Amino acid sequence: MNLIEKIRSWFGRKAPAPQPEQTQAPAQPARIKKTCRGCGKTFSVDPSWDHIPNYCKECKKKFAAEKEEKQRAGAPRKIKRKCKACGNFFTFPNTLEHYPNYCNNCRKRHQAEMKAKYSRKGKSPDA
Fewer CB near the terminus (10 Å): N or C of the chain? Predict the structure, then answer.
């Protein structure tokens, strides 16, 4: 075996070795069909989830809207929520049109990041 044949054997394509028994990868477990306790609609659920819901997405949204309406009713008062970004609690009045999910500091930080990211200042017209 000369040198070129040896190099070809190192880098050449090799035929795939026949496998004794070709088995398919285990298939994803079948999705479970579940009936909503609220409206009776059927929806599919992945069995690998830790928690299997009892209500469909539409019913969950309806429950959240009802909860928000209850919070809005009555005399003006403060509502306490946990910030999605930092986890700190913050308060806001129930008279706001849209309830915030982030505290003032996180909201301001996010706005500053977006301004810096999408600012037109400092960019050349050629770019």
Answer: C
The candidate with the shortest Cα–Cα distance to 78, out of 68, 96, 95, 92, is 92
**pLDDT (tens place) for every residue of the chain, 127 residues total:** 688 888 878 877 666 666 666 555 556 678 889 999 999 999 998 888 888 899 999 999 999 999 888 877 878 889 899 999 999 999 999 888 888 999 999 999 999 999 999 988 765 555 5
Q: Cα–Cα distance between 107 and 110 in angstroms, integer?
A: 5
Nearest to 78 by CA among 86, 87, 90, 67: 90
What CA–CA distance (Å, rounded) separates 59 from 37?
9
